[in-house]
Amino acid sequence: MRGKPASALRSFLCCAVLALAGGLPALAQELPNLGDADRQELTPVMERKLGEEIMFDIRRNIDYLDDAPLLEYLNNFGAQLVAARPEARSDASYDFFFFAVRDTQLNAFALPGGFIAVHSALVLAAQSESELASVMAHEIGHVAQRHIARMLGRQRQDSMIPLAALVLAILASRAGGDAAVAVMAGSQGLALQRQLNFSREAEREADRIGFQILRDAGFDTSGMVAFFRRLQVASRSYSDTTPAYLRSHPLTTERMADIDARNRDQHYRQRIDNIDFQLIRARVRVLQDESSAGMREAETLLQAQLEQSNWQMVAAARYGLAFIALKRGLLDRADEQLQQARQAAARAPQPTANIAIAGLNAGKKLAVFSGAPAPAQNAILASLAIDIDLARAERGGAAQKKAAVAHADSARQQFPLSRGIARQYAEAMMTAGQNEQAVIYLRDQLQLYRREPQLYTQLAKSYAALGKIALQHIALAESYALTGATPAALDQLLLARKAPDASFYDQALIDARERELQARRRDEMADEKK
To answer: What class is the 275-352 domain?
Structure first.
């Protein structure tokens, strides 16, 4: 975070949702079973709606890391974990969404409806994919067991919307710490303190589910033990505070013993991390603090990382240095570092299969090597190469712009599932002045990915370049609507209606969409009054 993080966000936000319920019983000792009426009061659909309301505000916050490579990595990684427990999607079959926020506190949180976040500092603290997976699996466990629904189920559903508004107020206050302190010290202060943490039973339940997910997804279950022990050791070094994750997820001796016992029952498993894990850690190190001082600190750490004998770490360090050079506008240096990152990546082992070895007791260690050299190209490296091409194209002439389009198109075909590279390809076409082609491509993309506001924003830019004013504002309206900015979306529709090039068909589309958004706005205003 820039400066000191606001105290409100240091709290585990999922627990903040619970805390803001105020008069709810603690339910600390006795959790209802999965069939309880209390739990059914807050339906999966309502949970999702509440989560989306909170996410609208989080996405607009400056410390939400809206970074395509990072989001793709977290969501691909999280999908592996959810696949090990598909029933976690609940009766509503909602999609999980994993994201990161810029924060120097070691923490993670789950929101209602399958939205799960990790703090950037936690990504940097994890020493392996299994450690990161252990935290994310624990949060999936909270969602799978619908702990928020259990804690809030006795309240009427109508209370959920003002509850969301209170959470949004806390998130909005992050720009000014005094406001966050005022909220904490206000009439809800005592309730916040009492209900800040999930009950011990809920934590044990999330541990058990998370451990099973970790095991079934093929990760090293000792990663959970290692990460929690590291946090406990780190807490002894804090002079004035405990790591946020331990405050919001208190690790009792009983819980640690339970995790240890479960891990001892597992067969030895060696898992070679995917190189993407180290590349993303290097990227997060740069994104953690993009000030000049922060960049210098990241550069020093990455330079030191080059001395390691692990080729994945060397490749990641080169990648991070290339990213820093790009942000400084040193394109030739960025290109040079990226080429060296690719060379190191080609020498790094890449996991081919997980290895489980039965019959080894906890005191034995067996060195087992698996994997083949990683390809010199992957989606994360390709994405940075395109960014360098785009920066060069903005400075250069037609040749550089044509090259940027060609390279982006090649990467798009090589990595067809990468949403970030798909949008980079559109950006390359727009940079090269190929706006008509960009419109055709973006409209095709929107047939498949209707809920990506970035696509609508790019489409609006292409329409603007072509002088299609009405369509530009219609596309912007859709982008705003998807991010929860309903008033702004309605303003864009008004501008589209007044545009001189608005056709009869455009006017009909505007009328229909305006009615939908006005109804949504009335609902939002009614909810705010409750």
So the answer is: mainly alpha
